[in-house]
Specification:
CDF/SLC30A, zinc ion transmembrane transporter activity, membrane, about 80% helix, disordered N terminus, Alpha-lytic protease prodomain-like, mainly alpha, Cation efflux family protein, about 0% strand, disordered C terminus
Length: about 210
Amino acid sequence: MPCCSDDTCSSSAAASGGYRAVLWIVLAINAVMFLVEIIAGLAAGSAALQADALDFFADAANYGISLFVLGLGIRWRASAALVKGASMGLFGLWVIGSVIWHAVHGTVPGWGTMGVVGAVALAANAACLGLLYAWRDGDANMRSVWICSRNDVIANLAVLAAALGVFGTGTGWPDLIVATIMAVLAIQGAATVTRQALSELRDHSSPDPAPLLR
């Protein structure tokens, strides 16, 4: 059996195993759900739905980056994972800012819209998670894709819980609490992806050749 270096084995296996096709599918799902949720989130005045919409947009961009580096060496893939880690962290910070704004203005979102759209988003992300399950333990680039999808499913469940909370209390606080949880998940995921990507870059960095002694 021919052997290959770590730079090419995992990427080639991913490409031949259908990883590229799966990424195109989940990219399309996330792009459509971004449009659905951003419109619904603005109409309902829900910080959680708006945060989830931005997350769908960030994921679609991340999947596009993953498609670009698929088949390239591990340094390219780890570098792409760093970009995705940074985007996840920025998403978390944006959500925190949104929570503060809605808290100051006392927004009470429409719980019905939150529930319906949250259920649709949950089904979409569960499908993505199932498609990506086989590559959950890959390199930093693959792992970042898996972590994004896993966090999305958790976030969708939280949005549904927030809709029930808004219905039961008549206040916007359940929506704000869920949005805060989503921000924490994004920042935690960003830290995990960034650590692994930096580790892979260190492990595959080539030291400068020693000067020849004359």
